[in-house]
Amino acid sequence: MKITASLPDYNQVAQELLAVFYFDNAESASFTALKKANGNLVDSLLERKIIKSTSGHITSLFGHADLPAQNILIVGCGKRDEFNENAFIKTIKSLAAEVKKTSSTSIAIPIDDIKPANHTAQWCAEKTVESLLTAMYEYDATKSVKAEPTTLTSVSLLADEQNLELSIKTGKSMAHGINLARELGNLPANVCDPAYLAEQATNLADAYDEIEVEVIEESQMEEMGMGAFLAVSRGSEKAGKIIILKYNGGSESQQPYVLVGKGLTFDSGGISIKPAAGMEEMKWDMLGAASVFGVMNAIAELKPALNVIGVVATAENMVSGGATRPGDVVTCMNGKTVEIINTDAEGRLVLCDTLTYVERFNPASVIDIATLTGAIVIGLGHHATAVYANSDDLQQQLLSAGKAAWDRGWPMPLWDDYKEELKSPYADFRNVGSRAGGSITAAMYLSEFTKNYTWAHLDIAGTGWSNAKDGASGRPVGMLTQYLLDRIQ
Ligand code: BES
Ligand code: MN
Ligand code: ZN
Questions:
Q1: For 324-350, what is each residue's pLDDT tens digit?
Q2: Residues known to be catalytic
Q3: Is 216 in the pocket of ligand 1 (CB under 6 A)?
Q4: Measuring CA to CA, which residue among 358, 435, 434, 443 is closest to residue 395?
């Protein structure tokens, strides 16, 4: 898709479609231009309440406008002073849905008209591109009837500011990363298993010179003493893997930023089996891993001068005669022992050994991303990603990256008060606390394995997806990509 910027000169705009934004209590430049060209028509449509300012409402004027762009989509935007980032994204998404229906090939979008307070044209350009391209995504991989391919090939962003090239590029790469994460997430567990994820990693390394891939198999995990990881993968016929994607964009002396994704391609709970209702949702238990793929894809396209290592801890949590029993004690790679009280608290087990493993990279920071607990869905719902960190600076950097990318997080505590719950009479720790503060005790467990570097943990059980119809959200690819881009010196 060709996306460019041009000036909002409505007598020059020659795209097939032109978006015109209509607010309740303020007149946008595009609406003024339309009124100038077709005053009587607009007045009559307003009078008959056909044009509405209701947020997301669209009036199509095809072939009637006396402007070079003959087909107009008038998009209702609500009140100008209430038009915030959420409204911006909703507006672009409803516009995209309408464009999809029209089979048009080109559109002009006057982004200056819909700037939320305190945002630049650059932000608007990036988010318009990202929202448009993510709105075009449709899952069809396992359907016999495929989605109609989009006919749109050219988008022109109308803005006085013309220095938008980098923002357009960033928006595109963010969208590609988000859509990749969604696709991997939406695939069923019989297709997207640990071997499939390893194959995707190889594909990424084949596509980009800057990316190398390495896969650690179970035999190597045994040699390294990853008893916690293996306690999970042992219940499944599918072998667990640790997939390592290295992006080398910086100098050799630059410490890498490390991302570690939870990649349970299915979580049945193991012997502590989950109830049947809703168990199909546990194909999404690899969304942390999916987001690592998404970020690595975005980074490979944007090529920042950084070193980034994406690590995917992937396995399947299943029930079998070989599966781990509640009460089993295993030894982790760092020598600590864990009493596995609940085999459904498996994410922290695959992650703890992977987090010990990444010490060898001498990381600038390590961020793990995991659909770790049902408790965080209750705590923060589907809107805020839980952000834990052993460094206030890192926590703040992630929160502000999330705000800038409009993929927001909320700070959570790592107080040692919560650690009491992880005591065991039979091992150094148990793998679960009580029901109270379940996301925090899970994070506390991980914090025992991340003392040697700057670390953050994102619990995305609430934000990675919210329902079957919408599928995977692609979060927090935006937050993490922004965090990395903010680290460029
Ligand atoms: N993958 C789940 C967490 C989860 C639950 C994500 C619901 C999304 C929606 C995780 O492995 C799990 O089962 N956690 C348990 C932990 C408990 C046994 C301490 C949970 O949250 O119930
Ligand atoms: Mn589980
Ligand atoms: Zn899980």
A1: 999 999 999 999 999 999 999 999 999
A2: 274, 348
A3: no
A4: 443
Pocket test for ligand 1, best of 272, 274, 344 (most atoms within 8 A of CB): 344
pLDDT per residue over 176-234, tens digit each?
A: 999 999 999 999 999 999 999 999 999 999 999 999 999 999 999 999 999 999 999 99
pTM, full prediction: 0.98
Please give the single-letter amino acid code of residue 192.
C
Residue 365, both tokens: 């920071």
Residue 177 CB contacts under 8 Å (≥ 6 apart), including other chains: 294, 295, 296, 297, 298, 474, 477, 481
pLDDT bracket for residue 63 (50, 70, 90) = confident
Largest CA distance in the chain: 82
- C-alpha dihedral over 382, 56, 183, 201, to 10 degrees? -90
pLDDT per residue as tens digits for the range 105-116: 999 999 999 999
Distances (CA, A) of 84 to 120, 403, 406, 429, 473: 13, 13, 11, 46, 20
Domain ranges for the chain: 2-159, 173-485
Ligand 1 proximity of 218 Cβ (cutoff 6 Å):
no
- 406 phi and psi angles, rounded to 5 deg: 50, 50
> Which residues are within 5 Å of ligand 2 (an ion), measured at CB?
267, 344, 346
Given a contact cutoff of 8 angstroms between Cβ atoms, the answer to whether 33 and 10 are in contact is: yes
The CA–CA distances, whole Å, from 32 to 27, 29, 59, 431 equal 7, 5, 16, 62
Residue 194: closest CA among 238, 146, 258, 254: 238
Please give the pLDDT value at position 361.
98
Residue 14, pLDDT > 90, answer no
Ligand nearest the Cα of residue 459 is 1
Query: Looking at domain 173-485, does it have CATH number 3.40.630.10?
Result: yes
Q: Does residue 39 have a pLDDT over 90?
A: yes
DSSP track, 385-415? EEEEESSHHHHHHHHHHHHHTT--EEE----
As assigned by CATH, the class of the 2-159 domain is alpha beta
SS3 366: strand
The length of the chain in residues reads 489
User: Six-digit token pair at 216?
Assistant: 């650690």
Residue 298 Cα to chain centre, angstroms: 11
